[in-house]
Amino acid sequence: MKGLFKLVICWIAFAAASIASGVIDRIFHLNPIALPGGVTVQSMFLTELAAGVVLVVGLYPLARGLAAPPIVRAAAIGGFLLLGYGLNGLIEVRVFTHVLDGGMGGVIAFYVTLAVVLGAAYGFSFGSQGQPAGLARRTVPAWLWRGAIAWLAWPAVYFLFGMCVAPIVVPYYRAGIAGLQLPNSLSAIFGIQLVRSVFFLGSSLPFVALWKGSRRSLWLTLGLAHAVHP
Questions:
Q1: Can you tell me the mean pLDDT for 105-120?
Q2: Is residue 173 part of a domain?
Q3: What are the residues whose beta carbons fall under 8 Å from the beta carbon of 71, sequence distance 6 or more?
Q4: What are the φ/ψ torsions at residue 91 (nearest 5 degrees)?
Q5: Residue 1 pLDDT level (bands cut at 50, 70, 90)
Q6: What single-letter DSSP state applies at residue 8?
Q7: Rounded average pLDDT over 208-218
Q8: Is 28 helix (H, G, I), strand (E, B) or coil?
């Protein structure tokens, strides 16, 4: 029950971050995202709250497996939200849709606020106190080939599964339905994914250093955390 109570607190932190980012938008006159036709602010907020449940539950196994002081745990979760979710999501949406045309400021405010508020809620609610394990001692060549594999993993997965769904989704992109668009070439798409992969990797490495469980549990929990993008 104690863990469930803390999860509710984290979900409230998500809702508070969403409301606070809206207040920041008004104070600084940031342009919000243009809502699709028929979508109201109220229905959008309710959808965000539902997505927050998925995010909070998905991050829980990762957060509880960290061994570090609370402020370090908060920084790791906050960085993950800002880089792995926020910046990566902004790149994807900005390149492949027109949704953020004129509304970038509001989205940036949301992800920065989410990283600070929800990161703190998780960092001070879950995990254990203690010194982090740190990254393993390896030679430079050993780090280089491991880093290269991790960096190239995302583009490989992206194109592998992209080829599976391309016959279905590409016509919608080419028709510009719902503001969708495609870059001019496959090389441009590949370059974008290489950049995004840097942020995926950078947001994941802190957990490799702070994890107190087995490699398999880190693999599963980190994979789950990446899968629950709100």
A1: 93
A2: no
A3: 123
A4: -60, -50
A5: confident
A6: H
A7: 91
A8: coil
The arithmetic mean of pLDDT across residues 8-35, rounded, is 88
Coil, strand or helix: which one is 56?
Answer: helix
- What is the maximum span of the chain, computed from C-alpha positions, in angstroms? 57
Nearest to 126 by CA among 17, 3, 218, 42: 3
Report how far residue 189's alpha carbon sits from residue 211's, in angstroms, rounded to the nearest whole number. Answer: 33
Mean pLDDT of 56-76: 95
- What DSSP designation does 33 have? P
Q: What's the rounded Cα separation, in Å, for the pair 173 and 43?
A: 26
Provide the residue range defining the domain that includes 70: 2-133+203-227
Q: Which residues contact 22 (CB under 8 A, 6 or more apart)?
A: 32
pLDDT at 230 over 60: no
Please tell me the total count of domains within the chain: 1
Query: What Cα–Cα distance (Å) separates residue 203 from each residue in 17, 59, 82, 225?
Result: 20, 13, 8, 11
Amino acid 106: pLDDT: 86
Residue 151 lies in a domain: no
Task: Give the mean pLDDT of the chain.
Answer: 90
SS (H, E, C) 147-207: HHHHHHHHHHHHHHHHHHHHHHHHHHHHHCHHHECCCCCHHHHHHHHHHHHHHHHHHHHHH
Provide the 8-state DSSP code for 32. Answer: P
Neighbours of 227 (CB within 10 A): 9
The answer to whether residue 60 sits within a structural domain is: yes
Structural domain includes residue 180: no
pLDDT tens readout for residues 135-165: 788 899 999 999 999 999 999 999 999 999 9
- Global pTM reads 0.90
- Strand partners for 184: none
